[in-house]
Amino acid sequence: MTLSIQGKTAIVTGAGRGVGLAIARHLAERGASVMFADNDESALASAISDYEDGDSHVRRFVGNMSEKLAMANLLSATLDAFDRVDILVNAHRLVKDSDPLDTDMDALEEMLRQNMLSGLRLSQMVAKRMIRQAEGEGPSAQTGAIVNISTLAARRPIPSMLGYSIACAAQEQATRGLALALAPHRIRVNGVSFSSVMSHELQCALKDNPDTRAVIIAGTPLGRIAAADELAETVHYLCSDGARFVTGQIITVDGGRSLADPVTARIL
């Protein structure tokens, strides 16, 4: 099995902080050229500050990933910098509470737009480019890999975060559907669903309520909260040729939490 991604080009959205940043850094450190994309300019500048001196394999793009023009510009910027794109990681997420009895659909529509539709549209754009750049290659060549980042909320609903739960579930179904649609083009599409991982949102939650740490650890069979780098390793595997026969799968990275936790509180 080879896990090498040396020489490949990746786009990672949500790369300004937390899980997205950990994934982007991990791929860059393993030899990929990486476009760090986020809508927070200051966070993004800080995220790649370590790479700016002489690191030609790292670039940044600031834009709202829910806007089609920003997606098109992101792809163009990546091609201008690196000439191709082999990997897309949709790690951008918007996490908000929502009242399940609120009949105003604005919050739900925002969750769907930010957490599912934006990643789906960007995947479609990037997939078209992957298909074009693979023309003339042999039938066994890997055209590209797309990985969508979700959370356990997709399968274990959280009443106080109904919109987010629905959006995560929709994203996972989009992952499976796109995997089937793109399989003839040798583009693999998979997802990573996480919980009990130190995301940016969880860091903020722990600052507001330190007792949350003990609750999460108690509900996690492996007895700890994982570093974001540990999730990044799973993404790395899915992007590599070691996973060349894996598509349409949602891999859960949660320390066994989904097996034991009744999920009576929010998961991040």
From TrEMBL:
Protein known as: SDR family NAD(P)-dependent oxidoreductase
Entry-linked InterPro entries: NAD(P)-bd_dom_sf (IPR036291), SDR_fam (IPR002347)
MF GO annotations: oxidoreductase activity
Superkingdom classification of source: Bacteria
Keyword annotations of the record: Oxidoreductase
Main EC class the enzyme belongs to: oxidoreductase
EC number per UniProt: 1.1.1.-
Pfam families: adh_short_C2
Protein's UniProt keywords contain Oxidoreductase: yes
Similarity section: Belongs to the short-chain dehydrogenases/reductases (SDR) family.
Record has Nucleotide-binding as a keyword: no
Higher taxonomy: Bacteria, Pseudomonadati, Pseudomonadota, Alphaproteobacteria, Rhodobacterales
Annotated source species: Paracoccus nototheniae
Classification via SUPFAM superfamilies: NAD(P)-binding Rossmann-fold domains (SSF51735)
